[in-house]
Amino acid sequence: MSITAREGWTVLHGMMFGAAFLLAFAGGFAGLYSLRPEWVTAEGIKERMLRLKVGMWAMAAVAWATVITGSYVVYPWYRSADKTSAKSILLANAGTAEWHNFGMEWKEHVGWLAPIAATVVAFAVTYYGPALAKKVGQRRALMIFFVVAFATAAIAGVFGAFLNKVAPVR
Amino acid sequence: MTSTSQPQELSDTPVAVALLAGGIGSAVLGLMTLLAEASTNIKTALTWSKPVGALAGKTGWAVIAFFVSWIVMHFVFRGKNVNFARFTTFALILLVFALLATFPPFFDLFAP
Fold first, then answer.
1. Predicted ipTM > 0.90
2. Three-state SS for B10?
């Protein structure tokens, strides 16, 4: 059941950091969406605020960890000029080339939008605190940014999983 | 007679600024992606790290633009009441551009 160091880093990037972000989204979105005075008492809003703030900053931190480990640790192994690198293997075959030309090319860029958007949301939630419950338009803007963070991370995550299946980094 | 003080409403400016900075950082990533595709010289200039390739410069400039624009706008708009809706609209337009510009079938159009 041993794995190589490179496989270990790939797991850390995708299945630990990336997966944690994607899983936490549901809770974060539910927290943001339900932060309304007509649904939750003032005491309830105060109670969940700390959880929301900590959760949002944790998500932002994990998003940054995901893209940094992905781009600076795993990606160099993936794109090495070596004929046995994942990229070389994918491009050597017309049937698999699009996994790189479309899948990796999309994933490596769009994934970086997630930590940027997540950081903005974490800041805003911290700044407003319980007052966010009364700010309908502002909360809607933050939810849009939060959904964008999730969508871009999901694109990167899905293609990452498939790429690692078709041409694993070893 | 006693006067009751009303709690001061929080200004939306810091959040508007943060949203716009997020849009700017994202748009810079999109722009760098298009430029790298269009020009090998720019692609080379963005290769801040050989193992990572041009992705290092593209994302590097995006992160710099995000944080620097946030800091600069924070000081420019500090104490002022900005139009939150307008800032959000700009931010979302920039975000849409970033999503489009980082989509391979789109940025491939810029290849020479």
1. yes
2. coil
